[in-house]
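Q&A log
Question type: sequence-to-structure
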Amino acid sequence: MELFMDWNLKIKKEWQGAILVLIGAILFSAKAVVVKLTYQYPLGALTSLFFRMLFAFPFLIWIAVSEEKKLGRAHLTKKEWFSVFFMGIVGYYLASLFDFLGLQYITAGLERIILFVYPTLVVILSFLFLKKKIHAREIFALLLTYTGVAIAYSQDLKVGAAKDVSLGAFFILLSALTYAIYLMGTGSLIPKLGAQRYTALALAISSLAVFVHFGLFGKWEELNQPVSLYLLTFFMGTVNTVLPAIFVSEGIKRVGSKEAAIIGSVGPMSTLFLAYWFLGETITFFHTLGTFFVLFGVFWISSRKKEKVLND
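Response status: OK
Response body:
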C-alpha cells in the first residue's frame, strides 16, 4: 500500500511538473505575439521593452529576495556578482533588445523558429571557443535545423520586403546567439543561487540596463499611451515574463531538464497558432515543415549532448 502511494505521489508530481512546463512554454512563446500587438500603438521597440521590464521589475526583486530568505543561499563574491551582472546584460538585456527590434520586421512565427535554434549555437560556440568536436550526427542536425529556418524564412519573404525580413531575421539570430552565450556561462552559478533566484537577479539587472538605455536614448513622448497599452504591457511583463519563469523552474524540479526541454518544444508551434489567431499571420505547409525540421534538429543536438554527459 505504501509503495502504491509513493508511486501515485511520484506520478502526480510528474504530471504537475509537465503541466507547469507546458503552460510556461506557451506563455513565454506568446510574448512575441504580445510584442507585435504593442506595435499597433505609436511606439518603438525600446519603449515596448521598457514597459515590459518596468512592470516585471518589482516582481523580480520580490522573487530574488524571497528565494534568498527561503533557501539561505551563500552571499555572492564580487567575482560572482560580476558574472551575474554580465550574464544579465548579455543573456536578457541584449537578447531581449535584439528580439524586440527583430519583431518590428518579421512575423512572430518566424521569430520563435529562429530563437529556438539556440542549442545549436551553443554547439557551434563550443566548437569555436572551447575546441569541442562536432560529430557527424551533430553536423546533420545543424544542417537540418538551418534548412528548417531557411524554409520558414522563405515563406516570410513572400509577405514582406526582403530587406526588412532579412534585417529582422538577423536581429533575432543575434538574440538567439546572446542567449546561447548566457546559457554557456550559467552552469556554475545556478547550483549556488538556485534557478529562480539566479533568473530573477539576471532579469532584474537586465531591467536596470533597459531603464538606463531608455533614459539616454528613449522617446519620452512615447510613454503617453492609452490605458489599453499599459494593460497589454503589464500582461507582457507579468504573464509573459515573470510567471513562465516561475512555472518552468518549478516544472523542471518535478520532471527534470530533459523532459522539460521536450515539453517546451511546444513553443514554436504554439506561437504559429497564436499569431494566426491574434495577428492574422498565415500558417503555410512550409511554415509547419520548417518548424518540424528545426524541432527535430534541435532535439537531435540536445539528445547528443545528454549522451555525452552520461558517457563522460
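Response note: Residues 27 and 311 are 35 Å apart (CA to CA).
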